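Researcher: I'm comparing several assemblies side by side, and this is the next one on my list. It has 561 residues spread over three chains. Same procedure as the others: predict the full complex and return the structure.
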Amino acid sequence: MALTAEESGRLVGLLAAHAERVVQRWADIVAASLHGRLSQAELRLQVQELHRSMIDAGAEGLTDIQSEGAGELRAALAELSRGWARQGFSATETAVGLYALKDVLVELAEAGEVELRDVVAFGGLIDRMGLFTFETYVHTREGLIADQAEQLLELSTPVVKIWDGVVAVPLVGTLDSARAQVVMERLLQTLVDTGSPHAIIDITGVPAVDTQVAQHILKTVVAARLMGADCIISGIRPQIAQTIVALGIEFGDIATKASLADALRHVLRLTGVEAARRQPRREA
Amino acid sequence: MTAGVDLSPKAQAIGSDEDVVRVRQLVRTVAVAVKLSLVDQTKLVTAASELARNTLIYGGGGSAEVTVVDDGRRRGVRIVFADSGPGIPDLDLALTDGYTTGGGLGLGLSGARRLVDEFDVETAAGNGTRVTVTKWSR
Amino acid sequence: MERVPVLKIGDILLVSIQIDMSDQTALALQEDLAERIVATGCHGVIIDITALDIVDSFVGRMLSTIASISRVLDAETVVVGMRPAVAITLVELGLSLNGIRTALNVERGMELIAASREADLTYDGEVEYPEPGQTATSP
């Protein structure tokens, strides 16, 4: 419920009249909940900024957080909560940062500076400010998570050239649909870029293979064949071999090898390179 | 039908072989503007090619309308293929891999369905066919 | 209607598709190639699709047909330069391009044709073809 113009007028007046006291107490209460993770001076600056933009919003702008005049206040709130979210503050800590203002108002009421009826009305506005802050907080965190997920994808899917005409992808960790797609595209692109007709997909580091993961690997192999390259799957551990058979997954005529070394040897033999193990020289 | 940031709905009549090519180019332009990934662009354009050909061959010609859609979180491309041809008498059969009445590979409808995120067919015998497909950005 | 040029390089016909083909253009290419194989007596056909940003079922069928026709005419067809996004889409579409040999680029395609030609010429009745559907059979 929005404040009436008179109510917000009284709130602005109150904040302006007791500016020093409000900012000081507000900063103190927030500081107590943060256990010194933000310096007193920094915190005071941030609180001061919020305080100022509330007063600047004026009687018109402060009736409701979504009102036209509250644009700058919304921007200030958004900035604060974005900053805190990035610094790793919890949702509660961010919310307390605003709700502390309610405690300040109650203290002012006890001192007889403001009527209790107004405190309740102002509280409603602060609640809505809190919700807005929280919304921004969640949004920022979602963005962070999405960024990190993307970075993780980048990190976890290297495609390396291990021999002339042979590239390998060592898969590590759980393969979900999104990751499998990235791996698939990167492998195929590397085949084109390096002109390599052979690829080894090593699944030693994949903890489990289900039907879906197997499907993704199979599709990659088929796509590579369409492009004129051949894939070998290596690093199939005993449990995974059992799952593959139990699930009835057909690898068809796709070459599978126990280890990356075996796979490489297989490719080299195909391409006519002799990989001889050097014998220790013995005196006759 | 300009390229770039123009995201208003665009229509292309399908009456000849060359129009199928034009549908492909139109869909490609919009898919790029909406920033679909390269693979998703390719999938959508391929699906559009199959469906535009169906509209031409089985529907006796018709039209394709390309619109940009937005569900608040992400954007996508929606294409509606409409014809006033004989309709599809048995939709389930038409959506079966390898089923064809036109001497093709029988992958047009069923294959196109696998290439898009949303797929919808409205058809009635004698009342034409309307295929709506949507591909969302990730 | 645009036409796709067919170039003769030594014993090989090279087709580099640079345009977004209409179905008519694709069918015309299919006919042109059959005629050129017979007219030139070439034993290899390389179709370079590096520039194609999509291959739909119609073009896929054209490639399969060209491969089959050229096999009958004692020429080997290799499709080269398929883009990753195109390959992924074809797999999803369910098109396997059976009977078509593929290579990453023109150079690899030429090696492939040379190798299978050599195997053909040295055929002494004892060589076993591991994939009968995929190699050119001797006359």
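Model: For your comparison table: The radius of gyration of chain A is 32 Å.
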